[in-house]
Amino acid sequence: MQFGIFTVGDVTPDPTTGRVPSEAERIRAMVAIAEKAEEAGLDVFATGEHHNPPFVPSSPTTMLGYIAARTERLILSTATTLITTNDPVKIAEDFAMLQHLAGGRVDLMMGRGNTAPVYPWFGKDIRDGIDLAIENYHLLHRLWREESVDWEGRFRTPLQSFTSTPRPLDGVPPFVWHGSIRSPEIAEQAAYYGDGFFANHIFWPKEHFQRLIGLYRQRFENYGHGSADQAIVGLGGQVFMRRNSQDAVREFRPYFDNAPVYGHGPSLEEFTEETPLTVGSPQEVIDKTLTFRDSFGDYQRQLFLMDHAGLPLKTVLEQIDMLGEEVVPVLRREFEALRPAHVPATAPTHHSRVPEEAR
């Protein structure tokens, strides 16, 4: 099973000191977090894509290419690649280039994002969001698999005998996840192509995501990609740990209360009760994460958000060390012991998808 870190790259004041990191500091911190993730034995680092303050990761492939040169094993991914407002041709070429630079250690997550103004900034209409996601991915899927593409659709100029360059490494496109927090159409899309489905369930109760994941599994089987329990599922989560839960709650509370997304809303206690957020000891993180299998079935990737809401880099790196030393080894062992033999233990990697005769 793959475990890793995802970041949204927010630039948020530290509520305990009032200090605001510069954009340069925040970008360097994200690189340090990725390096620490590999050092701690984690599998994946994923960055979001945003084009508005208070976020900095507007160019994920630039950041991931830099991280690729500083790591050896880490899978480099996105927590959102905006399939609605990016040109599919540019996505095809950017991520194929990243594949070559990273030796195949690349996958990506398609999403529509949660920032409405981004649509007009890139000349799109938010009312076309679902249609853009479906049409643009259909073109991207073809660009990675066909040497010469003729295309005509609603949302971009036609293509005649177009070849995207470079071609995917070893002729194998990056593995794709489709991320959604609310749209059954995206679960259907993931199932149709036999791609992965990622439920970033850090904000809403599990019942909401049980419906989306259940739909994806059912349709994955319907399209003939395997049985429902063999569908490739990823989950998000958020944790904050100290040796005892009282210290964790006391230290994290001011960050939670002032977070740009969920601050000034439900209490920390209400949020931890209703969502996957876990604030407590490493054992409490283990116990709660193991319940995800009960809710969603066996799954292949678990990503944790650990650097949100102004937490100092030193604190985040301490969290990753605890995750790698005390939490993930237990989770790997426990999840593996429960997994049926016919269910994939991990998400597809570049190596696993290259035909044996081409290795």
TrEMBL record:
Lineage top rank: taxon: Bacteria
* Residues in Luciferase-like domain copies: 1-297
Question: Which is an annotated GO molecular function term of this record?
Answer: oxidoreductase activity, acting on paired donors, with incorporation or reduction of molecular oxygen
SUPFAM superfamilies per the record?
A: Bacterial luciferase-like
Q: Which GO terms describe its cellular component?
A: cytosol
Q: Which keywords label this protein?
A: Monooxygenase, Oxidoreductase
Q: Which Pfam families match?
A: Bac_luciferase
Residue spans making up a coiled coil are: none
Does Oxidoreductase show up as a keyword for this record? Answer: yes
Note whether Cell division occurs among the keywords.
no
What is the name listed in the Swiss-Prot or TrEMBL entry for this protein?
Answer: LLM class flavin-dependent oxidoreductase
